[in-house]
Amino acid sequence: MTTTIHRNAFGHLRGDFRGALLRPGEEGYDEARRVWNGAFDRRPALIARCAGADDVRRAVRFARDQDLPIAVRGGGHSVQGYSVADGGLTIDLSLLKAVEVDPVTATARVAAGLTWAEFDLATQRHGLATTGGSVSSTGIAGVTLGGGFGHLMRRYGLSADNLRGATLVTAEGDLVRADDDLLWALRGGGGNFGIVTSFEFDLHPVGPVVLGGPMFWSLDRARAVLEFLHEWAPGAPDELGVALVATQSPPVPALAGTPVVGLLPVWCGDLAVGERVLAPLRDLRPIADLVRPMPYRAVQSLLDLAASPGLCSYWRSLRMPRLPVDVVLDLAATLPTPLSLLNGWVIGGAASRVAPSATAVGARTPGFELRLIANWTPGPGDGVAPTPGEVAFARGEVVSARGEVVSARGDGHRDWVRRGWERLRPYADGQFATFLSDEDPVTAYGESLSRLTAAKDRWDPQNVFRLNPNIQPSVRSAR
Predict the structure, then answer these.
(1) Please, which residues bridge with residue 245 across strands?
(2) So which cofactors does this thing need (predicted)?
């Protein structure tokens, strides 16, 4: 798609803009348009790498004057590639890296371009943290605005629960501080209401050493593990966070290529108590047990391999009171590629004690969140090829754990996700906006939707910010 930008308008923008403006063919453009998900190879008409909130304001007003769709890039980890749009304007926040940590009040004010690795580095210097994304290269903005799951959520709630303030650029290009109603919408409603340029978080004592690491069981032992998890996890102390995974590529050389079900427990509390709490899991005889004291920052990167940049990725998710064990095990045995996986979280603790009306996230009843994630190497029509250093696999047919040949084409992998998602839906009671892909966003918001729509009507009635899990205004007003 080719978009013509009026030369005079572009010259005026460039004269006032402190950051970098990149157009097709210019040095740095191709690198700047690359996103985490290799399935998307889009060419925006202009990339505005903003140096501050004033640049964001100028970029929004320019896009509206030129009738360009706006894509917003923080960490660039959207599974749907929302950070770039063909023929549009990408407003890139990745240069916004300011961090202010106040250890006395246990709060942090941070710019929207930070990744969780950068956030954790700054806060852990003071022995503090807040619930954040479990892949260290993800941006704080997308995770928080979608709700925000992480290892600390059973003790300290979701990322959105810890969001105490925000400053954002509106659809009119104005810089405002979120009032109570808008802040409620930002706590789970995504990027529908403006471009947040700075966040303020509550922090909590964490680590710097916690007890954590993966434990793996072969598929023939997985039923007992999952059934035990149903009975054990709801009563576990808040200090314990638990992620779950089924994969053919566990990060253990001796298990490479072995289909396994794993748990990733993280204990944020007294280490000796944590050892006693985790003893029942060890009684289930895992084939690999990598749980040990380690820095919290190291725990935050344990799942990075599953989200390596340049791979094509597609997922769908659901929220379930209980896992349908037979279906989960069947899906675990038919993963379409070596780096595809089932991934999820045990829901409960502090995250489930927040009233549904307190944030836009809605209900967080104790249970499970589960995603079906297909990852594959880019091929013709799938997007851009990985650069050196990115994870790549030999192209061709892929054989599942059952010996079934699965097409290496992206459409086949997406079909596996969609079919599995349909099989799981009868057992689900909703889903979380944090992990929305191409599902209807209405399914994630439930009773929050009418209030979110009212906020959209107030702040973005023309749906300028629509490249996201979109909440549409009730009536789009004329400019």
Answers:
(1) 262, 343
(2) FAD
Distance from C-alpha of 390 to C-alpha of 111, rounded to nearest angstrom:
28
CA distance 404 to 330: 13
Residue 72 CB contacts under 8 Å (≥ 6 apart), including other chains: 82, 83, 90, 91, 93, 191, 195, 465, 467, 468
C-alpha neighbours within 13 Å on the C-beta side of residue 457: 8
Q: Which H helix or E strand runs over 280?
A: helix 271-282
Say whether the peptide bond before residue 208 is cis (omega within 30 degrees of 0). Answer: yes
Mutual angle of helices 325-332 and 410-424, in 10-degree steps = 170
Q: Which domains does the chain have, with CATH numbers?
A: 10-92 (3.30.43.10), 99-206+450-459 (3.30.465.10), 209-435 (3.40.462.20)
**pLDDT score at 25:** 93
Q: How confident is the model at residue 442 (pLDDT cuts 50, 70, 90)?
A: confident
Which pLDDT score is estimated for 478?
43
Residue 150 pLDDT more than 80?
yes
User: Whole-angstrom Cα distance, residue 81 to residue 24?
Assistant: 18
CA distance 111 to 92: 12
Global model pTM greater than 0.85: yes
Quick one: CA torsion of 238, 149, 99, 294, rounded to 10 degrees? 60
Contacting residues for 227 by C-beta, under 8 A, at least 6 apart: 325
Cα separation, 54 vs 59, in Å, equals 9
Q: Which pLDDT score is estimated for 4?
A: 65
- Render pLDDT for 249-271 as a digit per residue (tens, 0 to 9): 888 888 888 899 999 999 999 99
235: helix, strand or coil: helix
pLDDT above 80 (res 331)? yes
Distance, CA of 38 to CA of 30 (rounded, Å)? 13
